[in-house]
Fold this sequence. Notes:
Keywords: Hydrolase. The chain is an alpha/beta fold. Helices cover 39% and strands 18% of the residues.
Amino acid sequence: MSRYLIQNLHAMPTVAGSANSIRIQGDVITAIGEDLPLEDGETAIDGRHCVAYPGFVNTHHHLAQSVLKGIPEGRQVPLGEWLAQVPYRYWPKITPDDMYVAAKVGFYELLRSGVATCADQHYLYHAGTSPELEDAVWQAAEELGIRFVLCRGATTTTGSHRGMQGNRIQPETLDLAISRMEASRQRYHDGSDLSMRRLVVAPTSLVHTSPRDDLLAFGEFAKAHGLKRHTHLLEVSYDEQVAQTQHGMSAVDYADSCGWLGEDVWFAHLVKADRPAIDKLARSGTRIAHCPTSNSRLGSGIAPVIDMAKAGMKITLGVDGSASSEGGSMLQEMNFAWLLHRTQHGADATSPEGVMGWATENGADLLGFKTGKLALGYGADIVLYRLDSPRLAGIHQSEWAPVMAGEPSEIHMSFVNGKPVVQGGRVLGVDEQQLTQDAMNVVQRLKSLVNS
Ligand SMILES: [Zn+2]
């Protein structure tokens, strides 16, 4: 069992009282205190000039998009056109080898920005999908040591989405999607508190990619196996229009009628949630993956998370896929979330403490992990940020400097489940030069395919 003692920390602002040391034994935190003594068999980590936070929890991503950044046709257009021009246009062309590179790039970006846990909505499934396309993501996660939740997307109808129709994507049948989900569950899912691999049932969109009966069936499958549920909702007002036209009710009422509200459900975006929608979501315990960078990049709007939090909804944060959020940095997302809502609600709308809770405790609680807190018996997901740089040295309340100043910030060391994953700003297990070359090769191949 590996054992570490992190000593001499400058600050641990999420921990009450005075403490400057954290003891890790195996995968958990076993002591937090002032000047804890080094014990036999422990490796000392010098945390001088560092602030320690719980490792961040990213609750919405599309790792495949890590090789689809900044595509010109998708740069100046809103969601509907962007979906048609970017993800739907490219995803039938992505091979398992491409996916492995994309996942590695995405995990690299997350780890180097302080993430310990990533929930990825992987939706590259169609009638002819190779299981290796999914295996590649699990493999990359395991190699880099990130805690990984695969939100298994599914499209069982081309429905109302022109992006799917235009790219002639052949959907899975419901039976095929569920049988493949069951195969993944048996192979990968571990429901324990400190599991490194979880499966979530995540049809790609609530309104557009599966009919009501299929949503009901996905919900039953999830409940039968204790799996959580996730999808996109109300990123733009089109969801509301389709729900009203096709079902004669609001999008959130439609979700309710499909059994898709509850504490086991979270939706990405909810930018267009109105007052009745917020109240209903809050009452049911449904949660949000708030993705402010992506919402800004696509001009979708600002999700009403301040009102949601007041109504009792637990806010979590996601960086979203890198085709609509090119940075892929959770620290940047936190910095932006801290700033953005002040433009609407004033200077006391958000705080670094509050945003930290969204990015750690709330995310871990949503996904069902005993992580997201620096506390005894919790998983040792810990990130140490250096504060001794010219850029951060002028900040008086230095324990919040990385959140207030955003990128670039340097991680001294980061642990997931008690194992080092970043050291001296470098993501362990990644040859940066090789990964850069691999990603460039994938981009070249995809470019030549779509242009031929
Ligand atoms: Zn998304």
